[in-house]
Amino acid sequence: MYQTIKYEVKNKIGYVTINRPEALNALNKTVLEELFDVFGRIEEDDEVRAVILTGEGRSFVAGADIAQMSTLTVAEGRSFGAYGQKVMNFMEKIEKPIIAAVNGFALGGGCELAMACDFRIASSKAKFGQPEVGLGITPGFGGTQRLSKLVGKGMAKYLILSADTIGAEEALRIGLVEKVVAPEELLPVCEEIAGKIASKAPIAVGMAKTCINKGYHLDLFSGSALEAEAFGGCFGTEDQKEGMRAFLEKRPAAFKNR
């Protein structure tokens, strides 16, 4: 169905793999369009409870496709950046948690794609960076915004303005990734985490993700009000009743996303 990505669902986990290894999985318009489409499908699919996003071969995503970008006009550049942002913002907005399994290069648009996920697990071989100023452009898919929120304004300026590339351990130290694992452990660790998420109440998981994302941009009192609404709303679900009943009966809960 897709030209540049692979998609499958196993054990309530959606696996999205960017599949342009010959171009180090660089993001062109087709990849972005197919990512937007697949995450739209994921949002509507009740079978999917969590998602693992990775890249084929030795790269997560080495950046946006420079060959495609090199001839863009000002208007075309704005349009390409806006579409990339649309895809990243949509990924962040959907209620299904997305884990970035960063297997190799995550540079430019690849770093931005990883940052649009809910958290990042990195192979010890992974490399991160925003090298755009070395190409005469700025980050365009949300990098100037998300990076500062993850690692702080000073560190974001350092990485973006110097165009430095950092390794997985440094990315962990500054808070760009949540965990670093051996390359052969990357997918199993991500599957373990995704499995834990998939076993929990889907409505509550989605509400919690939304509260964190929206509340991050609000003051404490407004964010707390948002949380109170979500907390109360959970008590109108069958899953809340099942979850608490299972706890009291000392058995695993069987959540039905209702």
List the SSEs and their pairings.
Layout: E1 5-10, E2 13-18, H1 29-44, E3 50-55, E4 59-61, H2 66-69, H3 74-93, E5 98-102, E6 105-107, H4 109-116, E7 119-123, E8 127-129, H5 143-151, H6 153-162, E9 165-167, H7 168-174, E10 179-181, H8 186-198, H9 202-215, H10 220-234, H11 238-248
Parallel strand pairs: 2-3, 3-5, 4-6, 5-7, 6-8, 7-10
Antiparallel strand pairs: 1-2, 8-9
Helix pairs in contact: 1-3, 3-4, 4-5, 5-6, 9-10
Explain what the structure shows.
The protein is an alpha/beta fold. Helices cover 49% and strands 17% of the residues. The two termini are 30 Å apart.
Element order: H for helix, E for strand? EEHEEHHEEHEEHHEHEHHHH
Question: In order across it, which strands form the biggest sheet?
Answer: 1-2-3-5-7-10
**Quantity of strands, as a count:** 10
**Proportion of residues in extended strands:** 15-25%
Oligomer: single chain
* Number of helices, counting only DSSP H or I runs of 4 residues or more: 11
Radius of gyration: 19 Å
> What low-confidence regions span 5 or more consecutive residues with pLDDT below 50?
none
| Separation of the first and last Cα atoms | 30 Å
Derived from helix and strand composition plus strand pairing, the structural class reads alpha/beta
Helix content: 40-55%
Query: What number is the mean pLDDT?
Result: 95
* Shape field: globular
The biggest beta sheet, please?
Answer: 6 strands, mixed
Name the features:
258 residues, alpha/beta, 6-stranded mixed beta sheet, 11 helices
Task: Provide a quick synopsis of the model.
The chain has 258 residues and is of the alpha/beta class.
